[in-house]
Amino acid sequence: MALFKGTILKSIILNTHRALTAGIRYASVEVPTDDSPVEMENPFTKERRQCILCKLNITPDYKNYRLLSQFQSPYTGRIYGRHITGLCKAKQTAVEKEITKAQNCAYMPYTYKDKAFLKDPKLFDPENPVRTHRF
Ligand SMILES: [Zn+2]
């Protein structure tokens, strides 16, 4: 009985080994022998990053003080820097210029954010800037 079990076990092991090696051979046969380079998309290309104003094609204007107030700190009224807003240099300078213009026209306060705009949706997260800040 033990001998019979041993032969069955041996045959099972042999059959699985044959099946595995046959599978490996079969897979190796499928690989194309042609070794020419394959045309493919560059996997290392980075997607072009755009700031939110460029993406939505918005030109900051001093009369649109509701938009401009989103770039102002609610505590001190300071204009957030580029490391917080994530704007490109051109749009950041335009926003700063327009905020100053709006403040001089009395559309916006200098030292605080207008209470009416405190619950507006945030364009960026001032709590997680690229660099640390004190406002
Ligand atoms: Zn931009």
TrEMBL record:
Q: Which InterPro entries match?
A: Ribosomal_bS18, Ribosomal_bS18_sf
Question: In terms of domain of life, where is this protein from?
Answer: Eukaryota
Name the protein family: Belongs to the bacterial ribosomal protein bS18 family.
Pfam families per the record? Ribosomal_S18
Is RNA-binding one of the keywords UniProt gives this record?
no
Does the keyword field hold Transcription regulation?
no
Its ancestry begins with:
Eukaryota, Metazoa, Ecdysozoa, Arthropoda, Hexapoda
Single Gene Ontology BP annotation: mitochondrial translation
Give UniProt keywords alphabetically. Answer: Ribonucleoprotein, Ribosomal protein
| Organism annotation | Leptosia nina
Question: Can you name this protein?
Answer: Mitochondrial ribosomal protein S18C
In its UniProt record, a GO molecular function of this protein is: small ribosomal subunit rRNA binding
* Gene Ontology terms: cellular component: mitochondrial small ribosomal subunit
